[in-house]
Design a protein that fits this description.
Number of helices: 6
Largest sheet: 5 strands, mixed
Number of strands: 5
Helix content: 55-70%
Strand content: 15-25%
Length: 207
């Protein structure tokens, strides 16, 4: 009789608690998964906004520099073959360096110039480079082939990987004279740090 009572007590009291515990455990697990997924989505959205803002800033920097009156004037003088060409190139390099410094420290502006006249001048600069005939790289040729677009490419330095944006600059006098190709370089390490700063879930982000 006592055994039957214990069995009945177990069936009426213990088993419901066990079933309730299993249900609560399943519900909690699903709730945790849902919260983790929501956190991951928020993290991804924040990373997207930050990285997208960096890319848009690079495009804006290229457009603003391309129509800048100082740069336009100096490039026009270079295309016209001014006798003080070396001085113009040096001033242009300095201007680009200052523009990068005060505009956005995450980016570096560069200018690539083409032309037989320029090849005669020994000029070395990290901001302004003269492209030799037959030595054009693929990204440069693509920028010339489709001048209305922003062209993105990657290149490797000794210490880092760089994302480069390139776009043709035309004279504002006629919008048909090619003055050069402007570039905006962004270190991929900077993009990684922006993405990880927004990632608070500990997940891995891939670009």
């Amino acid at each position: 009789m006592l055994k039957r009572f214990l069995y009945s007590y177990f069936a009426l009291c213990v088993l419901p608690f066990l079933l309730l515990g299993i249900l609560v455990s399943d519900f909690s697990e699903e709730k945790i998964k849902e919260e983790l997924l929501n956190a991951a989505e928020i993290s991804m959205a924040e990373s997207y906004r930050s990285l997208n803002g960096l890319v848009e800033s690079a495009e804006k920097a290229a457009l603003d520099a391309g129509i800048n009156h100082t740069l336009q004037g100096q490039l026009q003088d270079i295309v016209n073959g001014t006798p003080w060409l070396q001085e113009e190139l040096e001033e242009l390099s300095q201007w680009l360096g200052e523009y990068s410094l005060y505009g956005n420290s995450d980016m570096k502006l560069g200018l690539f110039l083409d032309g037989e006249e320029l090849e005669k001048h020994s000029f070395v600069s990290s901001n302004v480079q003269i492209v030799e005939k037959g030595q054009e790289e693929e990204w440069y040729l693509q920028a010339l082939a489709e001048p209305g677009r922003f062209h993105w490419s990657l290149y490797q330095t000794e210490t880092s990987t760089i994302l480069r944006q390139a776009k043709c600059i035309y004279s504002m006098k006629d919008w048909s004279t090619l003055l050069g190709v402007i570039t905006v370089d962004i270190n991929l390490e900077r993009m990684r740090s922006i993405a990880m700063a927004a990632n608070t879930t500990g997940n891995r982000l891939y670009l």
